[in-house]
Specification:
homodimer; 157 residues; mainly beta; 10-stranded antiparallel beta barrel; globular
């Protein structure tokens, strides 16, 4: 049964569906790399949108990263984002949503005992009809905040 | 392409697949409730197992909770579990895995600005072939650690 989208997240309803595209990664401690990404946003009628992400290497298709979480919007123009990473990291982000852009900043990043140390994440999203562009900055493994990822995704039809 | 399971998580390989069953919830601040649960564990050949969970109410099938995350086992007998909740909560658990039981205790629970306050989670799992039993205790909304959930899940064939 299809349930109507919850009013809290209706302004984010354009995200619903599966998006895919290509991105580039870099960081002071690693070699640059290309990736293909698939993101799915879904809802069940409650005040959140679920988020599932996977990337594979452009060169040989091997699995790279994945992450999962939920978006909430407890008041108009404000978005909360909780994310779990298979690296043993959890992330809590919050920030402004304008309709065409979303600027998320981590309020907390924490990890299991053996995970690599990540201390801050900033995610900038820009939206056009059928297109998401994002960039991600990260402070990790002793580095200060530095550019890590950028990608362009298109809504699959 | 099916990739072989990573040796780190091979002892948890019996979890792979989709499990379903019924559970009962209670907490000092709410009325008891029954739920039907579906859990899926999957892997892509990397050192983690993904976890996706959904529950619906036994009485009318309305969506109740959901949670997503990843299991890691950086050394034999030790499991790390990171979870994101649509309530705006993230959870980092660690604990012992004996083969037939898993005892996870939160090392950190954190949340977005508007989420309900959860301060600790304890998850006990007991395994038999094709059956998972779990119970979950939680400290939240000013209450000390108290029993919240228990369920019995069977592997779908």
């Amino acid at each position: 049964m299809d349930r109507p989208i919850h009013p809290d997240v209706e302004p984010l309803g354009f995200l619903l569906g599966t998006w895919s595209g290509e991105g580039q990664g870099e960081y002071p401690t690693i070699s640059p790399f290309g990736y293909r990404e698939t993101v799915t946003f879904a809802h069940v009628g409650k005040p959140f949108i679920s988020y599932t992400q996977r990337t594979v290497a452009t060169d040989d298709g091997r699995p790279l990263h994945a992450e999962v979480g939920y978006l909430r919007s407890p008041r108009p123009g404000w978005v909360e984002f909780v994310v779990a990473h298979p690296t043993g990291v959890v992330e809590v982000d919050e920030g402004w949503f304008s309709g065409s852009s979303l600027r998320l900043r981590s309020s907390l990043v924490a990890a299991t005992g053996t995970a690599k140390d990540v201390t801050a994440v900033e995610r900038d999203f820009d939206f056009e009809p059928g297109v998401i562009r994002y960039s991600l900055r990260m402070a990790a493994v002793g580095q200060s905040l530095a550019h890590h990822l950028q990608a362009r995704l298109q809504l699959e039809v």
